[in-house]
Amino acid sequence: MDIMSDGPVLVLSGDLDVRSTMEVRTAVRDLLLSYDEVAIDLSGVESADVTALRVLAAATVQAVRDGHHLTLRQPSPAVRRMLHLSHLARIVEVTPAEGVG
C-alpha cells in the first residue's frame, strides 16, 4: 500500500487490507487535523478487504462528529462492490474526482 497526500487529498494505491489499516488510519487522522474537507482517492486501489473499509467508514463517522467532511473518490468496481456487500456504502460518501482539491 502506497499512501501519499496532496493537500486535502489522501491518495492510496495498491492493496487496501488489514496490513495497511494502521497507516491509513493515521494518515486520515493527520489530514483531518489540518483540513475540514478531506478526500481519499481510491483510484489506484486494486483490492480492499472489509477490515480496511471499516477503517474508512469509522473515519467518516468520526469526521462528521468533529465537524469535518470525508469522501471517498473513484473506487474501482471491486472496491465499490465490497462497500455495497459490507453495507458500508451506507456510511461513506463516494464522489467523482472533482469532489475536493
Describe it.
The structure is a single chain. With 101 residues, the protein is of the alpha/beta class. The protein has one domain: Transcription Regulator spoIIAA, CATH 3.30.750. The chain is built from 3 helices and 5 strands. It has helices at residues 21-34, 50-65, 77-85; strands spanning 2-6, 9-16, 37-48, 69-73, 94-95. Strands 1-2-3-4-5 form a 5-stranded mixed beta sheet. Helix 1 links the parallel strand 2 and strand 3 (37-48). Helix 1 runs parallel beside helix 2 (50-65). The longest helix is centred in the middle third of the chain and has 16 residues, at 50-65.
From the structure above, extract its key features.
single chain; 101 residues; alpha/beta; Transcription Regulator spoIIAA; five-stranded mixed β-sheet; 5 strands; globular
Helix content: 25-40%
| Shape by Cα distribution | globular
CATH superfamily: STAS domain
Could you say how many structural domains there are in total?
Answer: 1
Q: What distance lies between the first and last C-alpha atoms, to the nearest angstrom? A: 22 Å
Radius of gyration, in Å, reads 12 Å
Tally of separate helices: 3
CATH architecture assignment: 2-Layer Sandwich
Q: Main β-sheet: number of strands, strand sense, barrel status?
A: 5 strands, mixed
Give the number of DSSP strands: 5
Percent range for β-strand residues:
25-35%
Q: What is the CATH third-level topology name?
A: Transcription Regulator spoIIAA
Order of helices and strands: EEHEHEHE
Unreliable sequence segments: none
Domain STAS: 1-101
Protein name: STAS domain-containing protein
InterPro entries: MlaB-like_STAS, MlaB_ABC_Transporter, STAS_dom, STAS_dom_sf
Pfam family, one: STAS_2
